[in-house]
Design a protein that fits this description.
- The protein is of the alpha+beta class and about 300 residues long.
- About 40% of the residues lie in helices and about 20% in strands.
- Strands 3, 4, 5, 6, 7, 8, 9 and 10 form an 8-stranded antiparallel β-sheet that branches. A two-stranded parallel ribbon has the order 1-2.
- The chain is globular, with a radius of gyration of 19 Å.
């Protein structure tokens, strides 16, 4: 009986993978996505026109999930991995945004971007996850947005997110990060896929060379204060990307913005606490506890 159940489960996974453009997931993932979209639609109905906090709504739905790194790198070849059972900081942000886009679309608040094909709610979610995770949505290891600076650049081009780190008319000081990334190409043995496919390192180097020409605004941690201007600039549900000065890297960690009485907090997949948490300490304290954390970039779902 156990063998029969295992065979049926494997068939379901394989069929699902074929149906969703080289995707890999378990049946409980598709069920969870569908149920979350249903909950998101009910939430939107209660919110009326204010759909901005939908990202925070979904992030909170994932609280308590275990932190697990490298969930995308367990195959010999690149697949669109859909895993809502365990997450790291990047996959948490991607899943939350994909759920948000899918919910807005099925609620009639967002026009489809894929030619009007009829798709299931889970199929719509998988589409947005693929577009967020990969340059031009190409499921290819060398096209995956490994560095978050590249993630930001590509998703801003695709009008999925916008970078609000510049402060605009708000009185929030910003500085520029001169991006210099090379960690992946100089540490290929740390990446399972690159160990299996060393020829891909050359493509990674090309991406690193391009990203290292960029200079990006960010808010230094000294400016992360509980002020009217910061509250006007950063909104609940925004993506917070923590800028680092660690050699070869650009961004150290990601999370979702949550304003509380004592200031800005972060909801994130914590490698220290081993789960998705809404931090009790505010973000300024969190940044001050890490010398290599320089400040934050702030991203927001693009209005479309």
């Amino acid at each position: 009986m156990k063998q029969l159940i295992a065979s049926l489960l494997l068939c379901m996974v394989c069929s699902a993978a074929n149906a969703q453009s080289n995707a890999q997931y378990l049946p409980q993932d598709s069920v969870k996505v569908t149920n979350l979209i249903k909950e998101g639609r009910l939430y939107l109905n209660k919110q009326g026109k204010n759909d901005a906090p939908l990202t925070l709504f979904f992030a909170r739905k994932l609280l308590g999930l275990p932190y697990v790194a490298h969930t995308l790198d367990k195959n010999k070849e690149e697949r669109l991995v859909i895993n809502l059972r365990e997450m790291d900081c990047t996959t948490l942000v991607e899943n939350v945004l994909a759920l948000t886009f899918a919910t807005l679309e099925v609620s009639g608040k967002l026009n489809p971007k894929y030619g009007g094909r009829v798709m299931s709610h889970f199929g719509i979610f998988a589409y947005y996850l693929r577009m967020l995770r990969y340059e031009k949505g190409q499921v290819d290891y060398t096209k995956r947005n490994h560095y978050f600076t590249g993630w930001i650049e590509n998703n801003c081009k695709d009008v999925l997110v916008m970078d609000v780190s510049g402060g605009y008319t708000f009185n929030v000081k910003t500085v520029k990060q001169k991006v210099k990334v090379n960690y992946m190409s100089t540490h290929p043995d740390a990446y399972a896929m690159l160990k299996q496919h060393p020829k891909w390192v050359g493509e990674i180097k090309k991406t690193e060379k391009h990203l290292s020409t960029l200079s990006c605004p960010y808010i230094p941690k000294t400016e992360v204060k509980n002020t009217k201007d910061m509250r006007s600039l950063v909104k609940d549900g925004d993506i917070l990307a923590i800028v680092t000065d660690k050699p070869g890297l650009d961004i150290a960690h990601l999370g979702t913005a949550v304003w509380k009485e004592d200031g800005l907090h972060m909801l994130h997949a914590s490698s220290v606490q081993k789960r998705v948490v809404e931090d009790k300490i505010n973000l300024r304290q969190y940044l001050d506890n890490h010398r290599s954390h320089l400040g934050i970039r702030v991203l927001r779902r693009a209005p479309r």
